[in-house]
Amino acid sequence: MKNCIFCEINRHNIPSFIIDENEYAIAILPKDMECFWHTLIIPKKHFENIFDIDDEYLQNFILFMKSLSIKYKHGLWATWINLLNANGKDAQQSIPHLHFHLIPRFPNDAMDVWPKFEKYNWDHKTDLNKIKNLII
């Protein structure tokens, strides 16, 4: 896509610190890392968000993320990882090209990457049936 920074990175037109890549994805260290080895995982093909990516491409993209996560667990001695993603403006997606943030986690790293939600009070029976009928 024209004027997409991630597409330019995928074409190697913008210098970046590439960690790993294959035909489906590229993993780079962002210019401003949020933590040790915070990594962006970007599909090579332009998809704006999770709703745009076709199933076959998504499967291969996910397998790339899994492989990189395993490499981080063994190579960086990360105990666990977080994979973070936002889809669309209201979800605070910063760049309109699907991407995930891989955050390696370590014992006592003192990071809290979960959003703070207010408790949602709902009528279980009434709300559940209304919603279930909408999505199924």
Q: Could you characterize what this model shows?
A:
The protein is of the alpha+beta class and 136 residues long. The chain has helices at residues 5-10, 55-75, 124-135, and strands at 17-21, 25-29, 39-43, 80-84, 100-105. Strands 1-2-3-5-4 form a five-stranded antiparallel sheet, covered by helices on one side. A hairpin with a 3-residue loop joins strand 1 (17-21) and strand 2 (25-29).
The helix/strand class is alpha+beta
β-strand number: 5
How many strands, which pairing sense, and closed or not: the largest β-sheet?
5 strands, antiparallel
Strand content: 15-25%
Give the overall silhouette. Answer: globular
Task: Using the CA coordinates, give the radius of gyration.
Answer: 17 Å
Report the mean per-residue pLDDT as an integer: 91
Might you state the CATH topology name? HIT family, subunit A
The tally of structural domains comes to 1
Provide the CATH superfamily.
HIT-like
CATH class: Alpha Beta
Please give the order of strands in the largest beta sheet.
Answer: 1-2-3-5-4
> What is the level-2 CATH architecture name?
2-Layer Sandwich
Runs in which pLDDT lies below 50 for 5 or more consecutive residues are: none
Order of helices and strands: HEEEHEEH
